[in-house]
Amino acid sequence: MVTVNKSQPEPTAPPMYGQPPPQAYGQPPPPPATGIPVIQPGTMQVNNNPGPWSTGLCDCFSDVPNCCITCWCPCITFGQIAEIVDKGSTSCGASGALYALLAYITGCACIYSCFYRSKMRRQYMLPEGPCPDCLIHF
């Protein structure tokens, strides 16, 4: 009669290429990496020289699709810019909806967008010109 010893684990095949290895010593797997990648301090190069705007103030038709969206529905363009400037902390939809609400209630959403233009200029070191931000967004 043959006896089987149940105290030993059954042998398993080695993991296939590209598959994670089995867990060592019965430890749970590490949690998956989530969130925003973090740059270690001192590893990022900062450019202190102001750069030019990619288009001039009157170069509206250099990007026709963006020109049309901005002309007919500026809340979409504002939402996109706000999401980039806020580094994703506010969504395009939320910022665009707030812009549309301010435009509908007060008619002066340009005051709100003026602050974002100033914030974007500081963040990307862009020159203030050819006139102040509040005049460009009026």
UniProtKB/TrEMBL annotation:
Regions that span the bilayer: 96-115
Pro residues biased stretches: 11-34
Region (Disordered): 1-41
Protein name: Uncharacterized protein
Cross-referenced InterPro entries: PLAC_motif_containing
Chain intervals with Polar residues compositional bias: 1-10
Entry keyword set: Membrane, Transmembrane, Transmembrane helix
